[in-house]
Amino acid sequence: MSELDQLSQLCERLGAPPAQAAAMAAQLLKRADQLALERNRPREETLGHLLRLLVQGRAGEVPADFPATQPPSASSVATTSQI
C-alpha cells in the first residue's frame, strides 16, 4: 500500500469522505515536501508534524504555537459584504 493510500485511509478514519480524504492526503504529502526543503528537515519529521496538527485539529485542539485569531466583527463583515 502506498503512502498516499495510507494517508487517505487515515483521513477517512478521521471523518473525511473518500474523495476529500484523497485530496487531503495529497496535500499533506506536498506540504511535507515543501516544509522539508524550506526548513532543511527530514521529510518524515515534517510529515509527522503535519499529522500531529491534523489530529489535534480534528480533536478541536489549538496548538500552543498557533497565533490567536479573532472572528471578524459584525461591522467588518457588513462593510466587506457591501464592497
Provide a brief overview of the structure.
The protein is mainly α.
Describe the overall structure.
With 83 residues, this protein is mainly alpha-helical. The protein has one domain. The chain has 4 helices and no strands. The longest helix has 22 residues, at 18-39. It is globular, with a radius of gyration of 17 Å. The protein starts with a helix and ends with a helix. The mean pLDDT is 87.
How many beta strands in the DSSP annotation? 0
Reading the helices and strands in chain order gives: HHHH
Q: Given the structure, what is the number of helices?
A: 4
How would you classify the helix and strand content by structural class? mainly alpha
> First CA to last CA: what distance?
49 Å
